[in-house]
Each structure stands twice: as structure tokens, then as C-alpha cells.
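Page 42, continued from yesterday. The earlier attempt failed because a stray header line got pasted into the input along with the sequence. Redoing it now with the clean sequence only.
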Amino acid sequence: MPITTTTGRQAVTTLGRQERDVLYAVGCGLRDDEIAAALALSEEAVAGHLARILAVLGLRDRAAAIVHAFDCGLVSPGRGPRRRPAGPLPRAAARTTPGPRLRISVLGPLRAWHDGRPLDLGHLRQQAVLAALAVCAGRSVSRQELTDGVWGEEPPNTNVVPVYIYRLRKILDTGGGPDSVIERDRSGYRLLPGAVVVDLTRMEALIAAAGAAERAGDLAEAVRACSQALEQFRGEPLAGQPGPFAELERLRLTERRTLLVQRKLDWQLRLGRHAEAIAELSALTVAQPLNEPVAAMLMRALYLSGRQADALTVYDRARRRLADELGVSPGRLLQQVHRTILQGDDLRPGLTGTTR
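This time it went through. C-alpha cells are written below.
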């Protein structure tokens, strides 16, 4: 079965210049940090470019990208792959603009940095406008969407959104003029593509990389990428931000974080790293005592670590909480794991039913 789904020079022309440079560097066997240093990009930007390369070219993982770089003639035999750069990239690959100097974090309290220096983003409503643009990076947000999302059913008496946009442009300006970071088009306002690194975008790129690694059968790499995605969280997403938009995003991103943790732990169990997963699963069951898939994973981890009695205790505790708080019995998944443990049978990988 071929490792690539597209070949030939024409396929590479569908990529932008910087993405072709990244593909060349990947074909030479460079790591993300080496590519970032060679092309004057951030590692987050490199990961984002690689995720788009895989999607555009229909490649399943990094190994497929290396093969494709050779197949299309971008990299010639004898030039790669290599683990470390033997010298500077060719002139064509080195002609790139510096990576974004501005970073915005929404996976925790809203923060922004310019060249590593923290920025004062102004009062909360103004911050909430920036938060909406950062979460929606990649598309325009209309003035009405911003008004509804930040103020809800109590809109301001005057149209203050353009005023906040003007102030935010001055705060975020990276030297390219007042419109260098936030631009306006017919649909509304958006962060200029390539001008800002947003931690949410970085997280999504890492999740895509983890999924690609799983499909390629490399669960260890999937766990690594998923762990890096989880490291992007630095507390409650958009903590303290006002308005219905921030509230809905807090709920969505918190749920996404929970599902990500479950996904990573499921991969760890499938790798046989049961003891490693127990501590995190135990903490998660305390935080979410009614989450049956998590309880099932903890039972499985304990059982496969030789702790059958502890696994059964987890079931009894979950059964009581479900009865006391919801008036229901354990679901099919939890009962199935419980029955398997009582019978002393093997627990097959994937029995936990983790949501993907």
C-alpha cells in the first residue's frame, strides 16, 4: 500500500512558498526546532505549516511527507534524509520572512506578548473583542457578532466596536502599520493570517498530528503530540472574560480538554502503560465522578496492573454516585468492564470506549 496519495511536481505547486520550504526541510530529515531555526519561524508556525501540508497533499504522517518530498523531486537522493542539518538551506528555501513576533493565549486567562514582552490589553470588554478574534482566527467576525458575543442582551448605547479595534491595533502593532495585525474586510474583522501565533491554533495542529500518528499506527508519537496539545492549556480557557461568546467557548474548550485527556490515556493503555495512566485517571475521576468512560478506563488500568480489588472499588464508588445523584444504574460500558474483571478475562484494547 503506497504511503502517499499524491505524487509529482504539480502537487507541490498547490502549497505556498513557505510550505514548500517546510516540506523541503522535512524531506531533509530536519526536526521542527531545526526547521524553525533554519527558516526563522516559530515551532508553532512550523507545526501549523506541516499540518496543512499533510491535509493539502493527502499525506497521513511525517514519514509520508518525507517520501513525497523525494517523489516530487523537491529533495534529491544524497541530500536527505538526515537527522541534523549539514549546512544552511538552499537560497530558495531561506528566502522567508521572519515568523510572527506576536503571541496570544486564550487557553487560560487572555494574554498577549510582543517579542516576549507582555502587553496591556485594556479593560475587559476590549479584551473580549480580541478574544473573539483570536478564537475565530482564520475567519472574519462581523461587528454584530462581536457586539452580541461580548455584550449579549445588553448592547452598548454607542457603536464602540470600531473604537476597541482601533485601540487593539495600536496595542498589538508589530511595526507594520496600524492595520498590520487586525484587518477589516467586507465580512468584518479578523487577525491577519501569519501575523499572530494563537495557542488554540497550535493546539489544533498538534491534535491533527496526534490523529495522523494514530492512523499510522504510531501510538507513542500520538501520545507525545497529544501531551503537547494539552500543555497549551494554562488554566480555565478565557478565564474571567465577559459575554456569552466567552462563556460558550469556555464550556467547549473545557470539554475538548477533557476528551483530549481521555484520548491520550486510552492510547497509553493500548500501549500497555497502565501504571503511568493510573495517577491521571484517578485525579480525573475525582474531578468528574459521574464520567463513566473515565471510570471504566481507571478500572481497566488498575486491573491490568494487578490491582483487581481497587478496580472493583472504583466500580462500587461510581455505582453509588450514579444512584445517589442521578438515580440511574451504571451504563453498559461500565457494567461490561466490571463483568470482565469479575470473570478474570483479558480486557481488550479499546474496550474503554473513549470518545475520539
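Notes: The CA atoms of residues 184 and 317 lie 55 Å apart.
Reminder to self: strip header lines before submitting.
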